[in-house]
Amino acid sequence: MTRLPPGSTIGILGGGQLGRMLAMAAARLGFKCAIYSDHRGPAFDVASATTLGRFEDLEAIARFAATVDVVTYEFENVPLPTAAAAARVRPVRPGPKALEVAQDRLTEKAFISSLGIPVAPFAGIRGEADLAAAVAATGTPAILKTTRLGYDGKGQARIETAAQAATGYAAIGGGQAVAEGLVAFTEEVSVLIVRGLAGDHVVYDIPRNTHSGGILRRSSVPGGLTPRTVEQAHAIASRIAAALDYVGVLAVEMFHVPGAADPLIVNEIAPRVHNSGHWTIDACAVSQFENHIRAIAGWPLGDPGRHSNAVMDNLIGHDIDTWEALAREPGACVHHYGKHEARPGRKMGHVTRISQRAP
Ligand code: AMP
Question: Considering the entire predicted model, what is its pTM?
Answer without folding.
Answer: 0.96
